[in-house]
Amino acid sequence: MIETVLTRRRTAGWRIFTRSGWVLGVWLLLAVLLGWYATLIPTFGPFQLTSISKNSLPLVYLAIGQAIIVIAGGIDLSLGALLLLSNVIAARFMEDQPVAGVLVIALALIAGIAALNSITGYVITRSGVPDIVVTLATSYIWSGLALWILPSPGGGTAPEMRWLFTGSESGIGGSFVLPMVMMLIPAVLVAIWASRSRLGLSLYAIGSSSTAARLAGLDVRRAKIASYAIGGALAALAGLATVAITGTGDPRFSVGAGATLNSVAAVVLGGIALTGGIGSVLGVVATSVILIMLNPVLIAMGINSNNAQVIQGVLIAGVMMVGGLVAVFKERRS
Asked: Is the whole model's pTM more than 0.70, yes or no?
């Protein structure tokens, strides 16, 4: 009897490890990278932790939103443009506003951009046009709209808004506690929703096989639209974090394009299959921070910034290839 219980516990423990092994691995890699970075610079303390955590926030939010969409079997190339749109609207209308007004604008932005991106999901489900085509088109629309709202960098936000995301009313210095809390709260909430709610589990089902999910009685269209709505809400949050960190709005297309590519890289490095149906959003939190840290680590090693960019790209491509090979091996084994 005792042996049976122990065997069941070992089996359950092994099952949990195999399901969460990649997530645990990327968090361990982040810890190792932080330890290594601490040995490369003269001093490492709260200031460095604050800088890393707050600068990672926009990418963390964007990667979580991208992760939900990819888990549902899609991909959104417009999330970076939605970040720009949120950023410039916030900077344009939050400047010189009281805290109450800033809060109302922030909530309206999150809800509005979630609704905007849910329309993208609706168009995809109704038209049958691939996600990559529709979202590439909408990325140009949102980027153009952002440029129309704020033709050049400018605007601002309330000091309290900057404090919420950076721990400092000026956005300089501050504490790493608030950025980490603001990083983990959305990640944990989305992870719990995705793994515990019926709609969240539907995302995994349609990502694995939309046909099987439909035959099982799941509302595939509703789940797909929900994934895009959540992606839009988190892109809006990323835009709010950006204006809080920089204190200004920036409508440049290159900023949004780079953010989109980094969000896809974070998703893949975080163990989420681009084919959908596999992975956890908790992994992308660690990989987003790793992507932000890679360039400073390489520069701290004495590598030229241009060469550091090339090495960073090669490292990301290499790890993505390893992740792809692992996924293929698992599929063949199953």
From this structure: yes
